[in-house]
Each structure stands twice: as C-alpha cells, then as structure tokens.
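Suppose a colleague, Dr. K., hands you the sequence of a protein chain of 961 amino acids and asks what its three-dimensional shape might be. Before reaching for any lab equipment, you can write down a predicted structure in token form. Begin with the sequence itself:
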Amino acid sequence: MVDALVSVALDWLISASNEDGSLVAGVEEEYEKLINALEIIDVVLLTADERQVIESAWSRRLRAIIHEIDDVVDEWSAAAIRKSKSVGVGTSPSPLNRRKVSNSRRLKSPSLTLGPFTVKIRDIQQQLAQFTNSIEFISISRKEGKNERLPTTSVMGVSEVRGREMEQDRVLKKLLCESNFPVNSDLYIISIVGMVGIGKTTLAQLIYNHPEVKAHFDERIWVCASENLSDPIRDFRATVDPITRIAGKKFLIVLDDVRTYDEEKLEQLKVSLLYAGKGSRILVTTQKQSVAMKMGAAWNLTLGELSEGHCWELFSQTAFSGKSLPEKAQNQLKEISMEIANKCKGVPLAAKILGNVMMNFNIREWKSLLDSDEVWQELIEQHLFPSIWWIYSSLPPPLKLCLSYCAIFPKGYTFERSTLTKLWMSQWHLISPWETITMDMETTARNYFEELAMHSFFQDFERDPDDGCIISCKMHDLMHDFVRFVAKNECRAIEVNNNEKEVIIAPSFRKVFHASFTCLPTINLIDPFWISNANYLRTLLLISKDNIGIAIALPTILDRLPNVRALDLSNNRFIEQIPEEELGKLVHLRYLDLSNNGRLRVLPESLCSLFHLQTLRLSRCRLLRELPRGMGKLVNLRHLEVGGTNLRSFPKGMRNLTSLRTLTEFIVSWDDVDGCKLQDLKNLNSLEGSLSITGLGDVRDAREAEEAALMNKEHLRHLELSFWGEKQDLKEMKSVAEALEPHQNLKSLGIHDYIDTEFPNYIASLTNLKRLQLSKCIDCLHLPPLGRLPVLESLEISRMDSLKSIGLEFLATDQHHHQEAFPKLKQLIFSELGKWEKWEVQYQEQHDDMPSMMPRLGRLIINGCPKLEELPNQLFQEAPLQELRIYASPILRRGYQRGGNHWNAISHIPITEVCENDKQMLVDYTSYYFQYRDYCEKSQNSAKLRGQPHSGRVTESSLML
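The predicted structure, expressed as tokens, is then:
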C-alpha cells in the first residue's frame, strides 16, 4: 500500500507547488529536493514486486515519512489561516483545497514560511535521502511478470457444481426465449457478475455445455477475456474466420472474465457479428458491475454466496477424496470439516482450494486450522489471495488506499456510504488532487466508493429508493481478510472482549495509523495505558458504546492523539463535556463524531480553532443547547449534523460557512441578537440532501425569507419548513411562506404549523416532488391543487382542524380533458382531521372520457376522521388498492366493516383493516422520509446500546406504535 501512498502524496506536492507557489516561499530548494526524492521512490516502487513491498519492514518507515509530510503541510496551512486577515472568508489553504487559495490569501510573511517549518521540511528531505540510499531500498526486487490466472475453457466436470440450479434456470430462460430479444438492439448481452471465486466461470461452463443450449444454437464459441477485449476480438475473429461460418446462424458466444471495457473493441465485435442470425446471444462474466453496464447488458445476474450445505459438499468432495478412515474418525472429520467449510463464507473457489490443500492433512492439522486464526490467514494468503490480487493491482493508487482503509472496520460491520466517504475525505492522501479540480471532494469520494462497489469489493447493498445510490453495505469476510492483508498494520480493527486482553492493546497501537476500537461497556478503560502508543494514529473510531472509562480518561486520550484526523466519540452517555484545552490541540482534526452522547450539554469554544474541520456530527445530543459562538471560523466545515438536539439558536457567524454541504437543521433566532437570522442562509448554496428550517413563525418580514434564497439551493432534495414560533406573526406568514419557494429539484417537502387559510402557491408547481407532508396547518380551509404533480408518490395530510371537505380542486383536473389525477401516487394518508366531512370527486357532467383518479394508488390510510361519511366509489373502481386501513373513524367503520353498507366496494382489496381505536403510526420509508429516518436512527441506537445487531429493516408491526 505504501506505493499508492507515495504516488498520491507526490501528486499533492506537485499540485500545491504548481497552483500556489507561495506555499513553498523560502524553502523552494528543499521542497524541490523533496519532490525529486519522492519521484525516485515512486519510479522504483512502480516496477517493484508489490507483494514484497507490502510485506517489507521498510515500508512502514516510508509510510511514517509520508505522514510526516502531511503533518507539516497541515500545520503550515493552519498557521497561514491564523496569519491571514481574511479568516472567515472563502476557504482555507488546507491540503485538500490549497490549489484554490486566492492570491489575497497566499502567504506573504517570511516569518511564517521560515523557522520551524523550514527545519521540518529539511529534516524530511534528509530522511528521504537516507532512505533512497539504504540497502533495503536498493535491494527491492523487480516484478517478474503479471500474476495471471490460467486461461479458462468451456470444459468442466459436472461434479464441480453445487447449488446453482436456480441461477442456471434463470440464465437459460433468458438465453433460450426468443421473445426476450430487444427489437432495436444490435446484440443481446447477458452478464453474470460477482466477486472473485464466487463461481461465475463455472456457471457459464455449465450453461455452455447444457443440452438445451447445444440444441438451440447453431454455433457456440468460448473466449477467455481475462486481460481485455482486444484478446477476445482477435481470438474470436480467428475462431469465426471465415465469417460465413456464422452468416445467418444463431450463435452463442461466451466472453469469460472480462476485466476492462473498450468501446472500440466492442464495436469491432459487433461488426464481426452483423451477419449473425436472430436470437444470437452473448454471455459475459465479470467481477465489475461497471463493465456489464458499459457493455450494454440487457439482463444481469448478480451471483451470490453458496449455502453452507452446498459449500460443505464442494469442500468435502476433494478433502475426503481417497481417504479410508474408521467410522469414528470419519465422523470427527466431518464435524470439523463443516466448521471449516463455513469459514469459506459461501465462496466456491475457497471451498475447492481448501479441500485440495487439506486432502493430505491429518486430524491434528485440521483442528489447528479450525482453532487458529493465524493458520487460517496463512492458508488463504497463500492459496486464495492470488485470485484477488490482479483486480487490486489494477486499481489506481487512491482507490487502493481507500480500499485498505476499510480494514479499520470489524468483520461483518455494516457501514454507511456517507460515513465512509467522509472518513476518506479526512485523510488528505486518499483523494487525488487532479480529480478534485473538476469536482468537489464529496463527488470524488462517492465515485471512489461506487467504483469499489462495481469491482465487487462490497456486498449486501441497501439503496436509496429515489436515485438508487448505495446507502449502506458490508464487505465479504474473505474480502475483508484480503484488505487486512494489504493494509498490514496501518489499518486495524481492535476488538477486546475481556479485561485480560487490555495488556496487549497498547503495543497494538504502536504500528497503526488508522484504527477502530471495540469493547464491551464493562471493560475497564479508566487507566489510559491502552492508548499510550497512539502518536501515529490518524483515525480512531471508538465503537465501544457507553464505556465510562473512555469518558473519564477522555482528557488523556485526546492528549495522546496529536496527529488524529478522524475521531469518533459517539454513543457514550457518560460523556458530559469535551476537554477544552486538549481538544484545541487537535489541529489536524477533520472529522469529529459526537452524536448520540445524550448527556453532552456544551461544546468548548476551542472547537472553533480546528480550522481543518470538515465534518461535525452532533445528532441526538439531546441536552445540547447551543453551539460555540466562534463557529463562523470553521471555514472548511462541510457537514454539520445537529438533528435531535436541544439547540435554541445558531451563532451569527454561520453565514461564513459557505463550504457547507450538509446542514440537517437551521434554527431561526428571534430573541438572540447574536443568533442566526433566516437571511444567513443566503450564501449557503452548496447545501445538499436534507434541511429542516424551524422557527419560521417568528419571521416578521418576507424580505428575510427572500434573502434566504432557497430557490438557489439546487442540490437540496428534502426540505422541512416549520412555522412554529415563540411569537407567531400571522399576518406575514403567507408572504413569508411564498418567499421560501425551493428549487424545482426538490424531492420531498414537509410543511408544519402553518397558520393561514391558504397554502403557498408553489406547492402545486414542484414537478419533481415525490413526497409531501402537510401537518398541523390548523387554519387551512382547502387543500392545494396537487393532482397534477407528475411524480408524487406519497402524500400525508394530518391535523388540519379547519378542513371540512375535499373536492375537485384537490384533483386539479379538467373534466373536458382526459388527464390522470395523481398519476404516480402510491400511498395516501389522512390523519386526525376532526372536522372533515366530505370527500367528493364527482363531476357535474359525466362522459366516457372522464379523467382517471390515482391509477397507481396501492395504500390508503384514514386515521382519526370521526365525521367523514363516505369514501369515493370512483377511488375503489380505478385505484389498484392493495391495502386499506381505517382507524378511529366511527362513521366509516360502520359503513365499511364486514357486513356494512359499503363492504362490497372494498371486499376485493387484499389487506383491509377497520378498527375503532386510534393508532398513531409511523409508516415505511415511502410514506415520508423524515419520520422514517428518525425512527431508524432511534432503533439502531437502541439495538447498539443493548449490544444487539440492528438489521436496518423496518417491519410494519414495528411501525405501529
């Protein structure tokens, strides 16, 4: 991994000197020598045996020097901020954006660049010179050639296949069914995607040799595409020459193990196949989802793990081959072998290789493998990792570093994409400077994540229902073993389950740069000896929940982390305050997670001296009442999460935080002269994701709302507007609300505590809105015309005390023009509408071409509507309802319960529930985003506090409170 580290560090140093020469003013000669030394090292490492580099002792020495460069540049840029008179304007020259520093912010004082920084740079340059002249460096062996797997063929043994019957049937159906062929497609491509060793080639061989496939296709061609598409094109042309061999014939070509995509080569392949018969197919196997997508696969099969039983069958098939043992020994070996097979985690290649290796092992050796993690690690390093190595070695340096960083998480850990990418951003050497020229850090980090996911390094994805982006995922255990191998001691997950292991914690930190630390709440950590060797730590994630020892020893812990960039102190109810002096010394800190510290009441003012801070997470700190007054100094802050706190106002300087991408909540101050006003949002136009604005009821002038410029915040997707206030101004509320019109890109909107008879006009014009919640709007007499919102999927109307009827204006359609009302609506909820009496959708004139109503509605909930008399019959005739629930609505209950006057109208609906009692409900994610988010966070924290895993799944029963 050190080769990737050197490469990225070199990019940053060259980038900094090219874009901002003042950063090296006074030390130009030493800086040039520094770059020259790194260039020499980089060239040597590029031609070196990468595995030898990873396993060498000198690599840590080199990593330490690179990190020392990081420290010096960090301290240098922090000093520049303090020296500059323009603190609070723009962004600071931190290592991640120092290329963008304006001329006015460049260092001009010789006293800043000379002195201690000069000494440090010269010292680093001397260390590098000594290293390049050392015996270890001179004797680095060169690569002997590529470590490639043998070319695959179509020949296989049927006995090698276990547990792929279902997958085989699915692929065969796509291959053999003529109706699947797209009308306007040149080629019909099917892809099989999965991690290394999961059985893609074996499944393709099984399908290629299937009798139905042989009978269906006139020609079958197998091409091993292990390098890139140039080889299969050449091989294919040789195979099909002359081209008349396939003219008019139906063929199947298998491109096995495609690793890269080359559009030009694929076009050559298409030209070669112009004369192929209709119904021809191409079957592609690849580890990379991106390759399948770029090749235009019409159908994709993601190959999952084998079951434990099938994995054991595959293992035992070779492990027991030729063994003649007494029955007792056979039973003993079988029991051990089942546990060994389980360690393969459903990967067929692992089962087959281990079976072959252990075929000649005795019982004692089998037991040692089962009981010893070291023996297991040695075995998989020797026999499994070569199969993964080629894809790792093909990654660019930043992706290698980002992947190895994942070794800080324990096995089986579910990590959120947003958290992981923010942690990557906190380590400057993980992000390529050339990529951040055209895009921001968040986009670059997200692209890195997606690329690694496309390479099958991650699995078990949970995706955002709006855009399909990955929210969270896991890493397969064998892939985690590999990542831990390439990271060596640089990135570690340290787990302690009993007090006896405390003595080994301190030495374990000595060689670590990035670590997570997990232990039970009962483990005694009051004595901070365990972190006495943590000077090199750049990342420390204390995943240990509610450990009182961590809270007591916190001053000492912080004092021993002088170089930390990312620090997680979340989920500890014993932390009541953060030591001010010790926190202020963490000058390199970029990521600080204090979320879910339920007793944390105040943050020290020294927090505002952490000029490099990018992410501050304070969610669910329920007793936290205020932020430090100097928050406006944190000009590099990009993510501020404050949901679920007890904050009453924001400090005035928040308007300076123009780098903010995440601001979960903004509180409008009405009685605090030093607090934020609504217009302080004006320049925060990079905000993205979710934003909740509270205290709008106290805004007395619509011009303040106009200056907030929500229309300019095009990256916001979810917006909540709360008009509650200490002194609500009812006269100005409508004009204030109108002035808060958001950008058309908005996906979700919630309006609460709005007190006016009419809603803002812009609601009906938000054409990208998918979810809408209107609650506690007690004076509104009518609903806005929402029926023409083209993509609205979920609508909730609740606690509107003045609403008496819903009529045709709600549908917003014209009876003389055939137009669907609510064309995409899937879920509709009416709750606690105490005066609602009528719901009418009947037009005065009836004709055959009447507008249709809610053609996709699947779920309707009526809760707490005691005066509502009847539901529209047209709704039951046109909407494909799958679920109808009526609660605390006595008139409706009598009419729609089984045997009631209207029972026949709803009897066809699969799920119906008509109850007398009121039920306060939280519904699933598709109803409204914000309630779902809060519920999941609370459930997850409750599970973690109990020491139980949280599945991340929400069932309907769990949502009915």
